[in-house]
Specification:
- The protein is of the alpha/beta class.
- The protein has 2 helices and 6 strands.
- Helix 1 packs antiparallel against helix 2.
Length: 114
């Protein structure tokens, strides 16, 4: 039950959103037990994100929320994947991307909790 929320300060076309969503679907497998079949993705473009006092250079903030936990190595691998996706698809430099990970033991779905 992972969720990846991506906020960027540039415009993103529908094609780019589809490409990012598909790439995230493959990349989430970096975390043991996670797959695209349970992945939810949100992409918010044209956000007022200031990084180092600047909002004119492309940058991104990505939140990855998962049910359960993952190892440091799994997070390292996913960070590399996400950074690569946003760099190649949107031209955002790796040093202008923040990624936050959040784990939870409480996740609701279909009227119940896991």
């Amino acid at each position: 039950m992972p969720f990846i929320n991506t906020k960027v300060n540039i415009s993103v076309s529908e094609k780019q959103k589809e490409n990012i969503k598909a790439a995230y679907g493959q990349s989430i497998g970096c975390i043991r037990g996670k797959s695209e079949s349970w992945l939810m993705v949100n992409i918010e473009d044209c956000q007022n994100l200031y990084f180092k006092g600047d909002k004119n250079t492309p940058n991104a903030f990505v939140e990855v929320k998962i049910y359960g936990s993952a190892s440091k190595n799994e997070y390292e691998a996913l960070t590399s994947e996400i950074t690569g996706i946003l760099s190649s698809e949107l031209g955002i430099a790796p040093d202008r991307i923040y990624i936050q990970y959040e784990e939870t033991q409480n996740w609701g779905y279909n009227g119940h909790n896991f």
